[in-house]
Amino acid sequence: MSTEKKTEDMRKKFFYERKNGYDLIKTPERKKMEAYCEGYKRFLNTARTEREAVREAIRQAEALGFVPYERGMELEPGMKVYKSNRGKALMLAVIGKKTLDEGCVIAAAHVDAPRIDLKQVPLFESDELAFFKTHYYGGIKKYQWVTIPLELHGVVALKNGETVDVVIGHDPDDPQFVITDLLPHLGRDQMKKTASEVISGEAMNILIGSAPYDDEGKDRVKLAVLSLLYDSYGITEEDFLSAELTAVPSMPVRDVGLDRSMIGGYGHDDRVCAYAELRALFDLDTPDRTAVCILADKEETGSDGVSGMQSSAFECFMEDLCASQGVTLRHCFEKSFCLSADVTNALDPNYPEVSEKLNEARCNYGVSISKFTGARGKSGTSDASAEVVAHLRRVFDEAGVVWQLTELGKVDQGGGGTVALFMANRNIDTIDAGVPVLSMHAPFEVVAKLDCWMTYKAVLALYQH
Ligand code: MN
Ligand code: MN
C-alpha cells in the first residue's frame, strides 16, 4: 500500500468531519423533505401566537384520532390523548406497549415567540393620532420591529366570562399596524445612540388611527377607534385590562433563496421544533415506550408561570397517566428521556466574530445537538451526560438522521437557555436538539429546509427507539 493511500485511509478512520446534508441524502428523500416543509409553512402561517399554535395542533391531532385526556381514563397501548394547559400550552401522548415504570420518551418544544404585547391600559391619543402602548415580550433587538407591518392577535376576556378572539391584519383585506421611526433627515441625534437605545421601549407605540370622531369633544380619534372596536368586538377601553393582545410581524412565510432551500418567517423559534415533534408523534405507530410531546409556553421569558415548562401542569398530566397504570411518577421520570427541542444559532458568515467554527451549527448540516447550553462558564445549563450523547449517536446514525454537535456562539460571547434544565431537574435525562436559525428573534427568521426535516427525523427516531 502506498503511503498516500495509507494516510488517506487513516484520515478517513481517525478524523471526525461534519458533512453537508445535501451530500448525504438522495432525491426521493429530498421530495419527502419538500412535502414536509410545505406542511410546516402552513402551520407557521396559521400559528402566530402560542394560543393559535395550540389550537392548530389540537385541530390536527383530533383529525388523527387524539382525544382530550380525562382523569381516570383507561389507557391502552396505541391510545392517543392530549391535555391543553389553559389553551396556551399542550401535552400529547401516544401510549406505549410498555408500562410507564419503564419510562417514556418526551420531546419538549415551545410555541411562544418574541413579540410586542399591548399594555393593560394601552390606548392613548397624542396630537390627534391614536396609539397602543406596548411592552415587548422576549429578547428582541427593538430597532428590528419598527416600520414593519404588524398584525394584532389575541383574546379579550370579558367580565361575564366570555372570551373574545381578536385577529386583525392577517387577512389580506384587513388593515395593518406599525410602529413608526424617525426619518433620517431628523435622525442625527438618534443615530449617535447605541443600538439598544435607538428605539426606547416606551416609544414602541403602535399606530392605530388618525380620523377623528365627528364631534367637538376631546380625544376624538381615540373615540373613533373605540367605537370601531365596539362595533366589531363589543369591547370597551376597560376590557383591555383583562386582554392578552399582541402585535406580531405580518410577513407571510415564504421560501428563501433562488434555490428555495430555506424558509423565512416569523416564529421559527421554536414552532419549527414544535411542528417536528407534532408530526413525529402523528406518524408514530404504537411505540414501545409512551411518546410524549410538549408544546410549552413562556420559554422566551424564562419558562416561569402556570403555562411554562417549570409549571407542575406537566407533573399533573404525567402523574395522571402513571396512576392509570399504578406507576409512581418519580419511577417513570427516572427512566425517561427528554429531547429539549429548541432552535440554536446558525453560523452566519456575515458575523464570523461571534462564532467558533468547529462547534457552531451550520445550515444544512442537520439537526443540531447541544450537550450543554448556558453562558460564561456554562452557567444555567443542564449538561447532558456523555452516555446520553452516545445514545443519540447510535439512534441517529441508525435512522439516517443528519446531525451535528454544536454550541451557541463563542465562549464568553453569550449563550442561551432552553427548557432542558427544567426537565433535567426532574430527574429526566435530557439533551438539547433543534434547528439552526439565521437572524433568530428577528421578525423574519430563516431556517434551512434540510435541518427542519432532519429535526423531524430525529424526534421520530427517538420515539421509535
Ligand atoms: Mn427557543
Ligand atoms: Mn428564543
Question: How does the SSE layout of this entry go?
Answer:
Elements: H1 3-14, H2 27-46, H3 50-63, E1 67-68, E2 80-85, E3 89-94, E4 105-110, E5 115-126, E6 129-137, E7 150-157, E8 163-168, E9 178-179, H4 195-198, E10 206-209, H5 220-233, E11 243-249, E12 254-256, E13 262-265, H6 268-282, E14 291-296, H7 313-323, H8 329-334, E15 337-341, E16 344-345, E17 367-370, E18 374-375, H9 386-398, E19 403-405, E20 415-416, H10 420-424, E21 429-434, E22 436-438, E23 445-448, H11 449-464
Parallel strand pairs: 1-2, 4-14, 4-15, 15-21, 16-22, 17-19
Antiparallel strand pairs: 2-3, 3-14, 5-6, 5-11, 6-10, 7-8, 7-11, 9-10, 12-13, 13-23, 17-21, 18-20, 22-23
Helix pairs in contact: 2-11, 6-11
The protein binds manganese (II) ion (MN) (2 copies).
Task: Output the radius of gyration.
Answer: 24 Å
The N- and C-terminal alpha carbons lie at a distance of 41 Å
What is the 3D form? Answer: globular
Percent helix range: 25-40%
Task: State the gist of this model.
The protein has 465 residues and is α+β, with helices and mostly antiparallel strands. 28% of the residues lie in helices and 24% in strands.
Describe the structure.
The protein has 465 residues and is α+β, with helices and mostly antiparallel strands. 28% of the residues lie in helices and 24% in strands. It contains 11 helices and 23 strands. It has a 9-stranded mixed sheet with strand order 1-2-3-14-4-15-21-17-19, with helices on both faces. The two termini are 41 Å apart. The chain binds manganese (II) ion (MN) (2 copies). The site of one manganese (II) ion has 3 residues, from loops. One manganese (II) ion (MN) binds next to helix 6.
